[in-house]
User: Which sequence fits this backbone?
């Protein structure tokens, strides 16, 4: 039976070793089941087939939607931990040559976040306490199997809550780090501005004096050379001035002209610019809310956000692909509402840009949006594109989130607070 896959045939109490999936009815209002997108993956370590069948029968009868793999050896247990990627482990405490305590240690090593529930015919209190101290989630006595379903539900709900809390804490940490780096960049930008202003003034003065002397024929070639050199200084200074503007935008301190805008209209207004920016090898798909709630933002800055994101998406798809841009009215208490520590219970308009590109590994995603962080050669961008996006959205009172699957896609989402003025039902 090692590595076999079991389920309960729909409409019967008999195990079916070929199906491996039980589509049981979900009780109304069950948060642990309703939040899941697919069957709960359960790995069962059990050397008694009748016990494994009973456990699955009890779970199915309780309405839990699951698929189960049953194993009875150490080798198959380790193999299925890695291959099946269970969301719950049910382990017998006593197996020939392999104990539940051994299985717990292996589970803690490979997947400590997965709930581990011990099943035993006779488990003393001291042993149970020691197992829980070592990382077990709970235990169920085999002579009291009726509580198995409730234990599984509670364990899964608690694991989901821990995962969500960890994700939200990570988002909050990254947001604070970007905010701190952005403020530092904006502070440097102000100092740059003052210094560059002096440089540009002196360069303009030198260029004007050189041009005047060259026109009067006083050592014309020499003064023409000085004028050209001064012009080079001015051109470089103007590039620095542009960099300063990007730094201020990254720090959320750029001069803005906010007004009530329709995000869908902003997107359609620069659709041709976006298409020319991404090039002929990339398809641009728009899915825009026909009546998005108005938001308060600088339309020129929102256009800059869209162009920056289009360029990033284009660069992630050297062989071509698809970019999708969508706008959507959203409330944070809605079932499809976003989960982010910076969002409050209110209405938003979501601007989402998704590409089918190379994606970002976790180490890169962790730093995305930090000024000067880039995976491109510095001459290609300088690492201010996404930082500018974060700064602009933040200055408009919005929240930014990026999700990415390496080799598949990246999705950028910006939630801008909807203005109460003239807001309809969407």
Assistant:
């Amino acid at each position: 039976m090692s590595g076999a896959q079991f389920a309960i045939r729909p409409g019967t109490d008999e195990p079916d070793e070929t199906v491996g999936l039980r589509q049981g009815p979900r009780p109304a209002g069950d948060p642990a089941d309703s939040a899941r997108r697919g069957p709960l993956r359960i790995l069962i370590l059990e050397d008694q087939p009748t016990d494994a069948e009973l456990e699955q029968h009890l779970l199915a009868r309780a309405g839990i939607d699951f698929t189960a793999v049953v194993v009875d050896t150490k080798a198959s247990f380790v193999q299925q931990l890695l291959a099946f990627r269970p969301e719950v482990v049910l382990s017998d405490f006593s197996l020939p040559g392999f104990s539940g305590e051994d299985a717990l240690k292996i589970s803690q090593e490979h997947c400590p976040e997965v709930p581990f529930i011990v099943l035993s015919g006779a488990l003393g209190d001291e042993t149970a306490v020691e197992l829980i101290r070592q990382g077990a989630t709970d235990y169920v006595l085999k002579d009291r199997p009726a509580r198995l379903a409730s234990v599984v539900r509670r364990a899964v709900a608690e694991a989901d809550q821990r995962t969500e809390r960890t994700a939200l804490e990570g988002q909050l940490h990254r947001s604070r780090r970007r905010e701190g780096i952005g403020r530092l960049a904006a502070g440097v930008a102000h100092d740059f501005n003052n210094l560059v202003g002096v440089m540009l003034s002196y360069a303009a003065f030198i260029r004007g004096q050189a041009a005047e002397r060259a026109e009067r024929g006083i050592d014309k070639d020499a003064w023409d050379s000085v004028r050209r050199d001064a012009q080079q200084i001015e051109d470089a200074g103007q590039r620095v001035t542009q960099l300063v503007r990007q730094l201020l935008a990254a720090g959320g301190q750029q001069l803005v002209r906010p007004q009530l805008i329709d995000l869908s209209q902003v997107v359609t207004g620069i659709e041709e610019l976006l298409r020319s920016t991404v090039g002929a090898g990339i398809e641009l798909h728009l899915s825009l809310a026909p009546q998005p709630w108005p938001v308060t933002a600088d339309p020129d800055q929102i256009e800059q956000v869209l162009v920056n994101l289009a360029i990033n998406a284009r660069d992630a798809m050297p062989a071509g692909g698809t970019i999708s841009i969508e706008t959507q009215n959203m409330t944070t208490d809605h079932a499809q509402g976003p989960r982010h520590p910076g969002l409050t219970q209110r209405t938003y308009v979501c601007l989402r840009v998704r590409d089918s590109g190379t994606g970002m590994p976790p180490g890169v995603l962790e730093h995305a949006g930090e000024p000067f962080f880039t995976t491109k050669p510095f001459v290609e961008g300088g690492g201010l594109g996404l930082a500018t996006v974060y700064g602009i959205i933040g200055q408009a009172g919005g929240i930014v989130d990026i999700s990415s699957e390496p080799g598949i896609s990246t999705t950028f989402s910006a939630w801008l607070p909807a203005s109460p003025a003239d807001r309809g039902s969407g």
In short: The chain has twelve helices and 15 strands. Residues 1-35 have pLDDT under 50 and may be disordered.
